[in-house]
Predict the structure of Sugar transferase.
Amino acid sequence: MSVVTHPPLRILYVEPDSSASDTFKQAFAEPLNIWQLTSAEEALAALKDHYPADAVIISYEAQAISFLKQLRSIPWLSALPVIVTVPTLNNTYKQEVLQAGGNDLYPKDFSRGDLLTRLHYFVRKSQLLALQPTRMPRFRVRVTWWKRFIDVTTTGLALLLLSPLFLLVALLIRIDSKGPIIYRSKRVGGGYKVFDLLKFRTMRTDADKLVKEMAAFNMYNKVEEVPEKEQFALCAECVYSGKNTCQRMLYLDNEEVCEKVYLQRKHNKAAFMKFGNDPRITRIGRFLRNSSIDELPQLINIFRGDMSLVGNRPLPLYEAEKLTSDQYIQRFAGPAGLTGLWQVTKRGKGKQDMSEEERMQLDIEYAKNYSFWMDVKIILKTFPALIQSENV
């Protein structure tokens, strides 16, 4: 009977006391892959730099409570298991650690409790949580009274006046191709609120299944793939170890790949998806898109409060999940909108002017600085931008 073995867990061990560190390494160096640091600041910097720790063990004296509060405020690190070592086990320490978001606490000498069993339990639990597709960070977004007043009054009137156009477009869509008239798509808006975005259907009913097949045509994907021969090159850390083998090998889809290379490739992947002359679009759908009529049902989203007239475009789940780092999460601090700063700045200027980084920075700028007069300017600039020349 074969025995299943697992690679050692990667533990970020934070302990300013050198003697305690030596004792810990002597006891757990074989079953764990330990990276030792002496301060909470170093640990946070390493994690933000995407060090792939499976769990953190931090001494109470190393500002563990402050570390936990900062860590739990970072969406993509909020579920990382953290164990705090304390001088002595008592209810005061226990309550303080658990309230700050710690998973467990141990005496500094680990004389009580089975540490390895607890670590594997917490790591497995965090992995299961990460597999939940709808689990995303959430935070409250402030929507001013004037913005909501404008949204309700304008969209209510628009829906009444445009009802004949809605009926005509619905008839044309039904004649042009089989499928529903309204397309519902799960989108992530302000504060990571997930809702059903409404649009007139402009694509074939199997459009979502074709996204992966068309990834090579993504206009935002300007990063070349890592050549296969470079996937197995040793990084500086592996060379320094002196073992002449990769110290962080991953096995993904029957492929061996260095963990650092994998993380770099994941970081380089384009977050936004957009295609030129998309063959998935129907005949009537191309006209609806170029005239922006396809987006009119979103007036219903605005009327019921899912989004606003002006804001950052709500993103599909597969795009939003790539924008949870501190660098880009600010775009979700503003309300979602039908039109926005990015649309009136870039739309219709050709793909050579498009940049994923530019788009995100414009979204962040709006989230930070939006005001009544900024919204008015964007609305006025939206009308000439509705007629575009590019088929995207």
User: Anything to note?
Assistant: The chain has 15 helices and twelve strands. The two ends are 57 Å apart (CA to CA). Residues 222-232, 251-255, 267-273, 348-352 have pLDDT under 50 and may be disordered.
